[in-house]
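Retro notes (design track)

What went well: tokenization of the new backbones is finally stable.
What didn't: we kept losing track of which sequence belonged to which structure.
Fix going forward: every design gets posted as structure first, then sequence, in one message. First example under the new rule, 347 residues:
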């Protein structure tokens, strides 16, 4: 942990990190959302790739098109193994033309860095796990933009656009301009948090995951590495895969699925009514349909919120039609909800 987390411990003595690395403001129930909310996104870490070949190297390794990523445009993407299975998912931003930050789940940073480091030795670039250096702060609410302008002096203007002053990167994650991620060094994060917290409500980082779930944004954590191809998380629908960028690791499998295969499993959003016991299923947990003994999908992420569980899961299309999906030790079935983007009727 860096100095930012130490400062939060002093400012919020009852705060803690829960399972999944989520930051809890206090032991009391989650705070109600306000017109501007801030959360320390402890679940995230960073890879830093620096050098004149940074974008060129990542172009040959990841699913997104680095010809379209610069100091004004961020992107969703992933790195896959040779079988097309996702090793990490990320949001990519740039502090300069030679300085890339990949924001990813913290528990995937070390292994992803070690894997990419094997190949970057042939490039004029270096990679490191920068999780101990950088902090991600989530800012949300209808007054989020005005607060950022007041305290940072800049904001992006559209979905997946970014701004930077060469140190801090600010990425917009929605169309309305009410959801931003700020990535900055620990010392800068302490100063920024102090400014924002005067007019914003500090909330648990689980709220950020709940917003990801509502947006249909599934991400890879350590428990789901090497499990899903990008299309299973709907990345081809939300800008996480380019099909005209050229070759990258796993590209043959991803492209074959897009043009010649039939996608049997994809990401769905659902809720689960709370039972008498605490929800304890981790990402990757199998799901079942009716009395079948063969798994029909896997949990991607889940958050307990307002007396129910909100979740994302990769499920078979056939199981959705049957409408009786459950965990192995739960009799309560999931209720499937609409995603904010359209799913193809057939592959």
């Amino acid at each position: 942990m860096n100095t930012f987390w130490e400062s939060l411990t002093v400012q919020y003595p009852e705060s803690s990190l829960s399972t999944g690395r989520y930051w809890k403001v206090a032991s009391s129930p989650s705070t109600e959302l306000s017109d501007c909310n801030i959360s320390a996104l402890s679940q995230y870490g960073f890879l830093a790739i620096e050098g004149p070949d940074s974008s060129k190297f990542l172009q040959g390794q990841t699913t997104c098109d680095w010809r379209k990523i610069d100091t004004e445009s961020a992107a969703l993407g992933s790195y896959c193994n040779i079988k097309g299975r996702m090793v990490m998912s990320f949001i990519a931003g740039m502090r300069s033309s030679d300085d890339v930050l990949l924001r990813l789940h913290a528990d995937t940073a070390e292994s992803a860095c070690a894997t990419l480091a094997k190949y970057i030795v042939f490039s004029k670039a270096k990679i490191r796990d920068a999780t101990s250096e950088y902090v991600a702060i989530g800012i949300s609410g209808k007054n989020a933009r005005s607060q950022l302008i007041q305290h940072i002096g800049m904001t992006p203007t559209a979905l997946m656009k970014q701004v930077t002053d060469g140190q801090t990167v600010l990425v917009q994650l929605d169309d309305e301009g009410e959801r931003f991620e700020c990535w900055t060094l620990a010392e800068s994060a302490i100063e920024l948090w102090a400014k924002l917290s005067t007019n914003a409500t500090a909330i648990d980082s689980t709220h950020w995951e709940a917003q990801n779930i509502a947006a249909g944004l599934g991400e890879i954590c350590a428990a789901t590495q090497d499990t899903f191809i990008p299309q299973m998380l709907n990345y081809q629908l939300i800008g996480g895969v380019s099909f005209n960028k050229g070759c990258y690791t796993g590209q043959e499998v991803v492209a074959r699925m897009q043009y010649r295969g039939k996608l049997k499993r994809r990401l769905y959003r659902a809720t689960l009514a709370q039972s008498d016991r605490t929800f304890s299923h981790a990402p990757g947990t199998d799901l079942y349909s009716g009395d079948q003994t063969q798994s029909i999908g896997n949990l991607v992420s889940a958050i307990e919120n307002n007396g129910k569980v909100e979740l994302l899961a990769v499920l078979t299309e056939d199981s959705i039609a049957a409408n009786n999906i459950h965990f192995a030790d739960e009799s309560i079935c999931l209720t499937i909800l609409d995603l904010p983007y359209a799913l193809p009727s057939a592959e």
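Added context from the reviewer: The chain has eight helices and 19 strands.
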